[in-house]
Amino acid sequence: MKISVLGSGSGGNATLVSSGRTTVLVDAGFGPRVLAKRCAAAGVEPSAIAAIFITHEHSDHRIGALDFAETFGIPIFCSRGTADALGLDGSLFAQYVPIHAEREGRIGDLAFRAYATPHDANESLAFRFDDGGSACAIATDLGRCEPSFVDFLRGVQGLLFEFNHDEDLLRDGPYHWSLKKRITGGLGHLSNRQSAEALGRAAGDSLREVVALHLSRQNNDPRLVHALLAETLERAESAARFGCADQTRGYETIEI
Fold this sequence. Notes:
Largest sheet: 7 strands, mixed
Radius of gyration: 17 Å
CATH topology: Metallo-beta-lactamase, Chain A
Strand content: 25-35%
Number of helices: 9
Helix content: 25-40%
CATH superfamily: Ribonuclease Z/Hydroxyacylglutathione hydrolase-like
Low-confidence stretches: none
């Protein structure tokens, strides 16, 4: 299985997951031209993408989805709530395939399962993909980490997971108090500390790659996240490689 983060952050999110003859795009948070360019840079032709999985309707995760799907004839997989928010029902431009949390599905060489995430969106999801030999989970925009979610992350070889903000930087930063309250609430985003605690519980012998996603430019620092990842994985006695995805450059293609 190959995974290419095309970009991650509040300015746009998109990730390619490929195995065998099947490639899917998770989120389409860039315009269609930018998406096509970033896919090509990762060695994937947009016309070869079998599906677009949308986690939720916020613009940094879906802004290019409808146009990209229409241009290249790609079906969109998402929850009923996300579809309603995007106006997908009855759309002439993109085939819509409903996904239900905790139910398994398959597209080509990839099996998938969704998890209902706590976020201020209309039925948002995290995704887990399995090709029979390896598995990865992609999860961002979470207000909290419950035990069932940690179970959802266990046993994967690749974990792409939100490390949104440093609590001190957010507290002392320029955001209005209402936005700070939204971010730190149970339907906002995970702090570095919260994410590290979940990672420490989920990490196992099978884990090979960890990529921190959705870092805030204003309220985080990749150096803080890198140090915390190193400490957390060492305590978990995990030899997994790790790093931080960038908004502009994404992350090097990993293979698990």
